[in-house]
Please model this.
Amino acid sequence: MTGARELAQEVGTARACRALGVPRASLYRQRRTSTPPARPRPSPARALTAPERQAVLDLLHSERFVDQAPTEVYATLLDAGVYHCSPRTMYRLLAETQEVRERRNQLRHVAPKPELLATGPNQVWSWDITKLLGPVKWTSYSLYVILDIFSRYVVGWMVAHQESASLAERLISATCEKQGISPGQLLIHADRGPSMTSKPVALLLADLGVTRTHSRPHVSNDNPYSEAQFKTLKSRPEFPERFGLIEEARGFCQRFFAWYNTEHHHSGIGLLTPEVVHYGWSAHVLAQRGQVLASAYAAHPERFVRQPPTPPAVPPAVWINRPPHPVRPSPEGENGGCLEMAALPIVDPGGAEPLASRGNGAPTPLFTPTHPLQVVRRGSTAASQGHEPGTRRAGTAQPITPAPPSAQALQ
Model:
């Protein structure tokens, strides 16, 4: 095309295009779209001269004004009886040298990163709310789930018509009661949703002696265990695209959480079920698995090249945002209970379960206070369902009481 333009200046456009086989329309189109080189913009007569511009820059770079905004420099100089230029001109001069950024010497408030450690069940819980699509567009149900991050055991859940702080308060209160949580024992982590940061929930946790933490703003991976559990929920083959009624959503969750707690072998906890880890049955199950693998090794040792097989172990510690140099409490009675450095293993929050994507849709403003809470009981050691005078009523609950595993059940 360049040769056609050069030849057209000598023999004409039509002859040049015929000789070189170039369509004339393409040549004309390129002429129209090609932009001429920009002409240098003339400097206005009222603009600052080069020495004046340099003097302003030197003033902005001086030790006195190096950490002050141009407006502050402008006001300070005016009070001293000096005028060089307007604040906008100062910004323009700084932009030409790529220096337009935060100049003020001030504190920057950054939300702290939560670094949470759990070495056993009922130490750290994670809870969140996800949406289950309703029968028509723009309708949904809210699923509240409380998860123990060490055992991955769902200790409490609830499906309601809407997201509400009062509902979250009832669910947390009932779950803590059924699990027999004592003051100072538990830490509950959540994101910064309106229900999680609400005043009723904060007052409830303070009354129960439960510490609360929140994810950082606009950070989606500070609550990985709940997100991974939602991914497992919504990846089940029987998970419907929509729920016709709230009773259908509750029925599905009832079946799912029973399967998740008692049948799902989680890769993050040594391929054990959450129930086995949560109630302290993992040692028995792992010993039985070890016997099976020992028998297999004795029958065919040539099939195991490096060493006898061993069952996957349960990680001794689980982190949310593991720090570079984690610490853990020393054994009771040693060092006065001080913290000691420990190289604790890294645990993948979801195991083989990636982070979840939430459903969408707005909740419908319908709720009856008789909707049941689905709360998992802590076995035979759970607190009674009676309410002492002066305590908060947890609302209607449907506990699920797991029985200790028998030898036949563990087989």
User: Anything to note?
Assistant: The radius of gyration is 34 Å. The chain has three domains: 2-32, 50-96, 116-332+341-381+393-410. The chain has a mean pLDDT of 80.
